[in-house]
């Protein structure tokens, strides 16, 4: 049987992972078409800005938790066996303050900081910290082995894996999702389009999903080594400001975060927020800057800044949209709306999208007979 012609719209972690899975067994000819590709930094392109680490946040028993559960073994295998992917293991410490329970960031952390989370048997070395181990103002904490992904290495690695499977990459900007069916590299109309456009699905013709909203994340990338991956459920500065630190693999620098500002579209870093982020990170992890020659703890002047950044997490009310729809005579499989978990759920969500593609194309082949 002739291979299926598929266009994947989107060059972020979602589009690339989906294209990679679709191209593995030779039954599909895949074109990836996108406005932004790895190497670009833009406010309409979330993936390069992510930390990115694996800190599960799905509700127990939900599809979301299942996608995160199914993603861990792949990321762990890459960290262990494939240094070219730019992923390494790191010990994570998740600190919880009881007073954050109802805040925006506390809600985001509610599963992550649970004393009995569903993921305790998924990640290695999970344990609750004893009272003696807790930092000041921290009510409870857990630790486990996580991974940190250097997105500047990992996204190009995904591209290279796709290229090896014959995937063709094209720059394109679509006004309407159905237009994507006409850019397949064979020159023929595609049998199916996969929509991995993230937050842009809010305005993309034929989709216009008003359930999407940005959760703005501001970061500072520094050269300092924290020695640990650490997070706190909230801050006293604002309801939607948080604190997290992780060092990327392969010399990618250390990410200091952050914020989770819903419905905030501002693309430029806020200098005051940047200062609050740096201060909070040093408070959480004084070793980030260490002491001066007189034995005095350094402040933010001890940070060696590489860059400031802002990304808009593609949050969606009701969660990720993984669904098949006929739009303007084109079969479209949607895979967007991954909020702050696009990497840690990437392999699970993409496998679910491939199932939808197979069942849509299966029905199509039957209809042709
Ligand atoms: C500060 C920050 C920290 C984060 N940390 C983590 C973390 O630690 N772990 C984790 O799992 N996740 C994290 N995330 C979330 C993660 O980055 C996102 O969930 C993920 O990047 C979404 O990827 P995506 O491919 O769906 O969307 P995007 O990366 O935004 O890609 C969308 C693609 O669609 C293309 N596109 C859009 N519209 C069109 C159009 N009309 N025509 C053609 N192409 C189009 C774009 O050009 C782009 O290629 C973080 C995010 C931020 C901002």
UniProtKB/TrEMBL annotation:
GO terms for molecular function: D-amino-acid oxidase activity; FAD binding. It is an enzyme of class 1 (oxidoreductase). It catalyses: a D-alpha-amino acid + O2 + H2O = a 2-oxocarboxylate + H2O2 + NH4(+). It comes from the Eukaryota. GO terms for cellular component: peroxisomal matrix. Belongs to the DAMOX/DASOX family. This is D-amino-acid oxidase. The lineage of its organism: Eukaryota, Fungi, Dikarya, Ascomycota, Pezizomycotina.
């Amino acid at each position: 049987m002739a291979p299926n012609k598929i266009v994947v719209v989107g060059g972020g972690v979602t589009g690339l992972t989906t294209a990679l899975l679709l191209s593995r067994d030779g039954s599909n000819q895949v074109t990836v078409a996108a406005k932004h590709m790895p190497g670009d930094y833009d406010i309409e392109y979330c993936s390069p800005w992510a930390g990115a680490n694996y800190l599960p946040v799905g509700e127990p028993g939900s599809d979301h938790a299942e996608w995160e559960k199914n993603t861990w073994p792949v990321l762990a295998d890459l960290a262990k066996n494939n240094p070219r992917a730019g992923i390494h293991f790191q010990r994570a410490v998740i600190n919880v303050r009881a007073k954050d329970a109802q805040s925006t960031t506390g809600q985001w952390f509610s599963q992550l900081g649970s004393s009995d989370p569903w993921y305790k048997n998924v990640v290695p070395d999970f344990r609750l910290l004893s009272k003696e181990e807790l930092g000041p103002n921290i009510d409870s904490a857990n630790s486990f082995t996580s991974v940190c992904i250097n997105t500047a290495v990992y996204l190009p690695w995904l591209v290279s894996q796709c290229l090896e499977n014959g995937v063709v990459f094209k720059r394109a900007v679509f006004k309407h999702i159905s237009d994507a069916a006409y850019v397949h590299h064979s020159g023929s109309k595609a049998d199916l389009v996969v929509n991995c456009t993230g937050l842009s699905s809010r305005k993309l013709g034929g989709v216009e999903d008003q359930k999407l909203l940005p959760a703005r994340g501001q970061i500072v990338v520094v050269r300092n080594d924290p020695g640990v991956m650490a997070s706190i459920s909230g801050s006293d500065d604002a309801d939607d400001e948080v604190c997290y630190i992780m060092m990327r693999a392969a010399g990618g620098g250390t990410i200091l975060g952050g914020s989770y500002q819903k419905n905030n579209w501002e693309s430029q870093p806020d200098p005051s927020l940047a200062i609050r982020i740096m201060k909070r990170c040093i408070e959480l992890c004084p070793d980030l800057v260490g002491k001066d020659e007189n034995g005095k703890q350094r402040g933010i002047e001890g940070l060696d800044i590489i860059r400031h950044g802002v990304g808009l997490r593609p949050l969606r009310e009701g969660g990720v949209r993984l669904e098949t729809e006929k739009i303007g005579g084109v079969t479209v499989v949607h895979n967007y709306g991954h909020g702050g978990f696009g990497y840690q759920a990437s392999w699970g969500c993409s496998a679910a999208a491939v199932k939808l593609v197979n069942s849509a194309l299966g029905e199509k082949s039957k209809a042709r007979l």
